[in-house]
Amino acid sequence: MGDARPVGLFDSGVGGLTVLQEILRQLPKESTIYFGDNAHVPYGSRTTEELIGLAYNIISFLVAQKVKYIIFACNTNSSISLPVLKKYFPVQMVGLIKSGAQEAVKATKNHRIGVIATAATIKNGAYAREIKAASPRAAVFSQAAPKLVPIVENGKIKTAEAFQATREYVKPLKEAGIDTLIFGCSHYPFLSHEFTAALGPDIKLVDPATATVMKAREEMQKLNLLNNPIPQNSPTHRFYVSGNPHKFQELASCLWNHPMPEVEQVSLEK
Ligand code: DGL
Fold it and tell me: How is domain 7-95+210-265 classified at the CATH fold level?
């Protein structure tokens, strides 16, 4: 029968849907619970204390929903909150940074790796540390991109503003001669057209979600947590947000190009 409890994941808004997409692809038998903290987006300009407090409340909520495993679908929290909070909860958790860094090290040929992420993730330096740990000879070029999350959250993908901002941010990375770029924020895969237009076809784009979900799957298998539903019991996918549920639902339907199920608003303020 397997373990039918859901996998929990969270982000500041719709960015984590790029991770959910990977879960649906690699773990199609699993039920999920998604939390989008859209009352507090963007995370990238928040302090360490704020981020840890917000993540603590979200993880407590997911644990109360009886999730069996948590995937941090947010790089900002993967770098800042996960190392602190994993000690406090009795549930296995994984973040995006280590797998993303290792994937980029595998992909690069010239050992010049770019990281584009929120200001908080870049300031924390977790990607640079993990890349260096995986390959001491790698050179890491980091770029904070504070305009990109608001562009995605305001539904402005594929606009002139989105192409312009992306071009501006990747310019110094191109000049540094990178051959691989890590999407260090889960919102950015929604801007992959903009990135490909700005970078050209030769720079490899790494979305950490792919390798992270693969790792989650391996860990869940080892811990006997994988689901094996009987045919008439198909997996369920629930969505919660802290802010406006209609805005989230509308935006997610556009980004995903198919209708979203009902989204429920919950307040986690203590
Ligand atoms: N999508 C998140 C990340 O991966 C958070 C972005 C934000 O809210 O600034 O970092």
Answer: Rossmann fold (3.40.50)
